[in-house]
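Ticket opened by: R.M.
Priority: normal
Category: complex prediction / small molecule

The reporter submitted a protein together with iron/sulfur cluster and asked that the result be attached to this ticket for the collaborator who will pick it up next week. Submitted input follows.
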Amino acid sequence: MNIHALLKEGTFDIMKTLGRFYLNNKRGLAFLASTLPQIKAGISRRDAHEQDGLHVPPFLIASIASQCNLFCSGCYARCGGACGGQSSRPDLTADEWRSVFDEASGLGVSFILLAGGEPLLRRDVIEAAASFTNMIFPVFTNGLLLDDEYLELFDKHRNMVPVLSIEGGKAETDARRGEGVHDRVSGVMERLMQRKMLFGVSVTVTAENIEIVMAEKFTDDLSQKGCGLIVFTEYVPTEADTEHLALSADGIGSMNTTVDSLRARLPDTIILSFPGDEAALGGCLASGRGFFHISPSGGAEPCPFSPHAKHNVRETPMAQILKSRYFAELRTLAAAEEDHSGGCVLFRKEKEVLAILGV
Ligand code: SF4
Ligand code: SF4
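Result attached by the on-call engineer:
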């Protein structure tokens, strides 16, 4: 199967799991009844583009905020300059983001992951995204700004799915994110569960927390708290002196095996795992193969872990970016890496990426 067919199958799998999650939930079912046909129409648009020689990925990652209310250790967004850095261009306005979402929707993109910095600092962009009912927007947030007004907005617009970052239990989360963060995020989970809203958690897996977050108890507890989406991401040491946190080959193997058994055990929970899922999809998904990343100021970057843009969505149409020589050369560079069992290919090959960029 080629990458287009594999990603199409993956999109259908996600929709089926969503159907199981919202099985006895009136508001959830109403959301699915309106959104599923629109997602299918998007898939048909991607099929048509594929026939015409344009590969449109089902996912985009949009870092909509360049600031954050937390200072977590080892934050890739701060290290890569997407958060708290000095860009030579201003952040995109809400209207500019609306144009980006409109363009993506026209091409048939199904999921736009909103990240940052802290995306909830950009309420104007969140409101713009909510109106695109033909796409689903997982919002990767630290959860601390998810107040009643946001809950109400997300409850009304079920295409907006909060994904809360945790690092394990209280000790692990507070150690990386700050004292008291775990309890506050747990409180947010309770309120999401009371409203029977789909929400997810995002966990960075390190050599220090792997045993805790891969234990059945961890995922069972999340499931009981109403969580319907778990995203595991292997730690990529972007910050100096954090190499000891990267997983060993054994750790990566055990993470992949555990994720397989979790999917069988929790059939109504969407479980994504990186780079495990990338390996199953033939390697690095960046540079438009499975997604690309848009920085707060509009830079079209291959991936958040390789924050180097040649084009900007302000002046270059998305279809042109997807067909660009820059992204094509980066895809070739990543594909040359045969072993995609761990770490990040483009992060490891930063020198070659910069040479392609012409820096
Ligand atoms: S919440 Fe996210 S963006 Fe903010 S500092 Fe922590 S890891 Fe970085
Ligand atoms: S650039 Fe790295 S993290 Fe991003 S998709 Fe490729 S291998 Fe994965």
